[in-house]
Each structure stands twice: as C-alpha cells, then as structure tokens.
Amino acid sequence: MSGSSGEQGKGRRGQPQWSPPAGSPPCKLRLYNSLTRNKDVFIPQNGKKVTWYCCGPTVYDASHMGHARSYISFDILRRVLRDYFGFDVFYCMNITDIDDKIIKRARQNYLFEQYRGKQPQAAQLLEDVHAALKPFSVKLNETTDPDRKQMLERTQRAVGLAAEPLERAVRGGLPAEEAARCAEVLLEEAKDLLSDWLDSTLGSEVTDNSIFSKLPKFWEEEFHRDMETLNVLPPDVLTRVSEYVPEIVNFVQKIVDNGYGYVSNGSVYFDTVKFASSERHSYGKLVPEAVGDQKALQEGEGDLSVSADRLSEKRSPNDFALWKASKPGEPSWPCPWGKGRPGWHIECSAMASALLGASMDIHGGGFDLRFPHHDNELAQSEAYFDNDCWVRYFLHTGHLTIAGCKMSKSLKNFITIKDALQKHSARQLRLAFLMHSWKDTLDYSSNTMESALQYEKFMNEFFLNVKDILRAPVDITGRFEKWEDEESELNKSFYDKKTAVHEALCDNVDTRTVLEEMRALVSQCNLYMAARKAARRRPNRALLESIARYLTHMLKVFGAIEEESSLGFPVRGPGSSLNLESTVMPYLQVLSEFREGVRKIAREQKVPEVLQLSDALRDDILPELGVRLEDHEGLPTVVKLGDRETLLKEREEKRRVSGAGASADLRGHETSGVRVPCAAPAPVLRPRGCECQGET
Questions:
Q1: How many C-alpha atoms does 556 have within 13 Å on its Cβ side?
Q2: Whole-number Å distance between alpha carbons of 449 and 618
Q3: Are the CB atoms for 639 and 594 separated by under 8 Å?
Q4: Omega of the bond leading into 372 within 30 degrees of 0 (cis)
Q5: What is the pLDDT of residue 539?
C-alpha cells in the first residue's frame, strides 16, 4: 500500500517553475545627427527599410581626395547598416551636371581650344596675353585670401617668364620654328589666364547647349571609374540634373503656389522671410548661426549669379534662387517664367523627392554643405510638402586636410584620387579612413598612411600564419582537439572582443575603436601561437580559424576586402581576377617540402654549397616572385604569398640591418679592398688601487 501511495505521489509531480535569465539590454545603433548635433537612436520610418539620399559631385574636374573622404566614408556607413545591422538600404545619389562652375569651365575650354586652333601669330599672342593680364592684375590686387593671392602671383610670374623668350624672338627675327616653340610654351603657361579673358569677352556668344554637356559627361565617367577603383558600391539609383529639368520646374511652381517663392525678372527666388515667419517651419535648421552669412550665400548662388542686377532682384539678401533666368552664353530650358536653368539647391530637393517622397530616413553630404546648401534644401522641400520632416537624420562627413593644411590648388597640395592611388592601394586608403571617425576631420599625410600600411601588414601576417596552420595535413578527427586553459582563455577574449566591436559599431559606427579591438584580438592570438610554438605544440586550428574568419568578415563589411575570400586578404595576379593563392600554393608547398628534404640531406652529408643554394632560393629568388619562406628550427618551413614590392623592401631592410651589424662587429681597416679585422686593443694596465677616472 505504501509503495502504491508513493507512486501516486510521484505521478502528481510537476516540472519546477522556470525563470528566464535576466540578460542584458540590447545595444541600440546611434548616429550623429546634424539636425540635433547629438547621437540619436536610429529608427527608420518603415521597418528595416532605409531610404538614403547622398549629394554627389559637381562634375567639372578630376575627383580629388576630398571626394574620396565623403564617398568612402558613406560607403563604409552604408555597408555597415546593410551587412552588419541588416537594414534594407535604398541608396540614391545625384550627379550635378548643370551648375555655374560647369558652365564657366565648359565655355573657357571651348573658347581656348577655338583660339589655339586659329594658331595666332606670335605678335598677336603677345598682344592678347598683355590684354588678359590687365583684368588679371585687377583681380590680383582685389584678392584678400593669402593662399589664392599667392597662387595668382605665381601664375603672373610664370606667364611673364614664358612671354620673355617669345618677345626676344619677335624682336630679334629668330627662325619661325623657334618662335613657334616659344609661342607653344606661352600658350600652355597662359592657358588659365587666356581662358578667363576669352570667357569675359566672348562667353556670351556661346549658344550651343551641347558644349555644356560634353564636359560633365567626361568627368562623370572619370568619377565612376575612380569610385569603382576605390571599391565604393554604386548607388541603387543615380540622378542627373539634366534629366530632371521638368520635375524641377514643377517643384519650383508648387513652391510658388504654396506662397514661399516669387518671380522676379524671369528668375524665381525662395522667400526666406515668409518661410521663417511661418509657425510650421524653421529656416536654418542645421546651422542657424550662419543665417545671414552673405559670403556663404553668394558662394551657394554661384559665380555667374552674384552680379549687382541679380542681387537687386531679391526681396531679402538671404533669399536664394530656385530658378535662374539664363543670360547669353548659358544653357537654358523653357519654363513658365521664360528660358532659364535650375538653381543649385533646388536640384537635390526635386530629384530626392521624386524618388524618396515627402520624408527620407538619411540625407548625407560633406561637412561644408551644411549651410547654405542643405539648409536651403530643407527649407524649399518642406515648403513644397508643407511639412517639417523632409529629412530624419542628416549625416555629414568631416573635412579632409593635407598634412594639416586645407587642400587647395593655391597651396599646390591638390591631390586627385588617381594621384593617391599611384602611391597607395584602395584598401590602404580605406583602412586610413577606417582608423578615423567618419564625422571628424581626417588629415591625409605620410603619418596617416604609414599607420594604415602597418595595420594592413599586421593583419596580413596573422592571416598568413593561420593559413599556414590550416594547410598542415591532419585527419578529420585531428581537426578537433581538447581545449586547455589557453584555448578557453583565448575564446573568452574572442567573445569579449566581438561584444566590444558591436558596442563600438552601435556608437555612431565607431570604426576606429573597432580596428583597435581587432588589433588587440590578433595580438592575443599571436601570443598564443608563439607560446605553442615555443612548447613545440600545434595551436588549436579550429579556434584560430574561427577568429580569422570573423576578422575577415568584419573587413568585408567595411569594404576592405573586395573580392570573394573566405579567410584574409586575397592574393591576385597582376591585372587578373585569378585567385593566385589557391592556384599556386599547392605547388609552393611541394617545393618547400622538397627543399626541406634537400637541406636535411645536405646538413647530414655536410654539403654547404647545397645549403647556400637553398638559402639563395629563399632570400633571392622567391621574393622576386612574391613568395616568402620562413625557416624555423625543428618546425616545418612556413610558406607565405605576399606583395612583391613589400617583400623586396623587407629584404633590402634586412640586408641593411645585417650589414650595419656586421660593420659594427668588424671594426677593421681596408687593405687592398679586403676587410681585415683589427687586433683587439691592448688592455690598459693600472697600478693596483689606482682610480684613473675618465681614462680608457
């Protein structure tokens, strides 16, 4: 009875109450929002979908490192949002191909080529250069900016020096060939001077619209090539101003209909006073302290749009052009107010709104675009939609300086993207940007790039070491080894670093901290591998592979590894998409094993000539092919594929250090070209107990 009673009691037992773990609150992504000047929690308006508009380039010249600063930084942010946080990013960018700078440069290029094609006589060329120097000198005297003044003075001196030989040739009646050569030199030196003069005298006669489309088309193509080389993802949609003129006209008309725009002498202006006085709106959301800055406002209007008659058309000095009546020598399109062309600020508003509607999640651009460009974009777009939330998060990338100075042609430190890529790879440039905050000033200098190169080398050495460990033959069960305390400790550090990386990315995509955490993790791995090597024990391949794959994944997220690579930086053949590593490594491994066997026999048989040949293969021949062999006493030789130039530099540095060490050790004298070690100096004998201070 008691037994059955016990069984009944046991049958009535239930599962004990379960309590979920307390856990930790999830880390939320925060982005620095220029609208609040704070790091705000990022909340898209529509689930995981993110709508993003980025101001693209005005294409009238070569893309420079300032462009790289913005577009690489936004590419990193875009990739992190998409590939790390899992957002569905719809990314739009524009090309400004109608602008005062483009119009002026296109006219100048056209008129100068026409002038050159006429092959002016030497006397005529000299007369024209002297005529061009008169307004140039006036501009020089009126210039207050010291850097620009210095540049203009250099131009004036260069033109003067180039004109002197031609003047002597004309006076002295030198042969026509000599005069023609001097004229060509002067034409090149005076190109900018003559172009400006020709434009001021003949620019109004240029009427062919195709002249204004040829220049931006050429530079847009160059821009896209530069972005592709830098591994910047193309936008999902690209808009060109020239293709959106009807939409821009309609956009301007609705602003006028809503009461925030007015027509004046064929142009249309935005009424900043009326907009600012409206209860629903605010003008100057991004930089309210800059409202009224006439210099900034006039720069935003463009060189061709700040004449006295244009300024007098405005009701308020702060008003800006939505639509500009075209003057002679400017492209034009039909509209309700007469022939004209779009203002700069309205272009982005109309194109972005056509694609993203009344409110977008992110708008991006360079720091220098905040006022007046982006503040005016916000005002006219919110006037169009009659709302106050056209942009939810405004992101601005920091300035770029060159060795601590502002980049400018006047300082002769203007660096194009192509110039930069002559010195460093796209990955190295990207690593330099990753090592700095995207919203702060970045100084492009030799120190900055050296840090990026060292980081790349440090990471690459780790990947090569792990690849070597993984290539070691092992049966399938041997891949899984018992973990000791060292493995558990390294694994804990691995997960701690992953948490730190996540927190850094949540904190305004702080890639600088991320790279430091990754560096620290690799340092711990290196210590672990060194300890195992010293103990003649194999490191745990599965753990190291997991860490290496994670680091590879993060570098892919950042766009620093552009090709398909399961582990580390891929090695490509020159000008080829071939994965060199997977193709040649099996053969190099066979060569290395054969060399080890030959060295072993040579040591046993005492054949130094064979050992010397083996060393020559390692030190002289293989580095020329981008291959490094590392011999370790009692361990298999490590085979690494690397960059040929880097390996050759390493070889020369090793020889230099070795030579310096030998020179220090062998303090000898030269005899018939043969270095003979000096005899050791005789010891100084001193009387016992005598202290001869300072004597040697």
A1: 16
A2: 30
A3: no
A4: yes
A5: 94
Say what the pLDDT of residue 578 is: 61
Question: What is the tens place of the pLDDT at every residue in 523-562?
Answer: 999 999 999 999 988 899 999 999 999 999 999 999 999 8
Handedness of CA 224, 568, 454, 649 (dihedral sign): negative
Q: Are 448 and 612 in contact (CB under 8 A)?
A: no
Calculate the CA 485 to chain-centre distance: 42
Please report which confidence band the pLDDT of residue 672 belongs to, taking 50, 70 and 90 as the band edges: very low
According to DSSP, the β-strands at 360-366 and 49-54 are: parallel
Q: Which two tokens stand for residue 678?
A: 């000096």
Q: What is the DSSP string of 632-656?
A: ETTEEEEEEE--HHHHHHHHHHHHH
Are the C-beta atoms of 432 and 450 separated by less than 8 Å? no
What span, in angstroms and rounded, lies between the C-alpha atoms of 503 and 30? 10
Give the integer Cα–Cα distance in Å for 113 and 123. Answer: 19
Number of other residues whose CB lies within 10 A of the CB of residue 404:
9
What's the average model confidence in pLDDT over 75-100? 97
pLDDT at 579 over 60: yes
E strand map for 301-376: 320-325, 340-342, 360-366
Q: Average pLDDT of 350-365? A: 98
CA distance 431 to 54: 22
Q: Write b or e for each residue in 43-78: b if 16 or more Cβ atoms lie within 10 A of its Cβ, otherwise e.
A: ebeeeeebbbbbbbbbbbbebbbbbbbbbbbbbbbb
From the number of C-beta atoms within 10 Å of its C-beta (0-12, 13-18, 19+), residue 277 rates as exposed
- Quick one: tokens of 458? 């440090």
What is d(CA 512, CA 409) in angstroms, rounded to the nearest whole number? Answer: 30
Q: Tokens 């006295």 — which residue?
A: 308
Distance between CA atoms of residues 133 and 600, nearest Å = 79
- Looking only at the bridges linking them, the beta strands covering 38-41 and 30-33 are antiparallel
Alpha-carbon Rg for the chain in angstroms: 35
Q: Does the pLDDT value for residue 682 go beyond 90?
A: no
CB 156 within 8 A of CB 136: yes
Amino acid at 340: G
- What pTM was estimated for this model as a whole? 0.85
Q: What's the rounded Cα separation, in Å, for the pair 636 and 536?
A: 11
Burial of 301 (0-12, 13-18, 19+ CB in 10 A): buried
Helix axes 176-189, 191-202, angle to 10 degrees: 80
Question: In this structure, what token pair is assigned to residue 13?
Answer: 């037992």
Q: Would you state the pLDDT for residue 669?
A: 40
The residue type found at 353 is: S
Whether 544 and 469 have beta carbons less than 8 Å apart is answered as: yes
**Cα(451)–Cα(647) distance, rounded to whole angstroms?**
18
Give dist(CA 73, CA 452) in Å, integer: 15
321-334 per-position pLDDT tens digit: 999 999 999 999 99
Angle between helices 294-301 and 344-356 (to 10 degrees): 70
**Segment holding 261, helix H or strand E:** strand 261-264
Residue 413 has pLDDT above 60, yes or no: yes
Which class for 627: exposed (0-12), middle (13-18), buried (19 or more C-beta within 10 A)?
A: buried
Nearest residue to 127 via CA among 161, 157, 166, 176:
166
- Other CB atoms closer than 10 Å to residue 283's CB: what's the count? 21
For residues 366 and 69, is the Cβ–Cβ distance under 8 A? yes
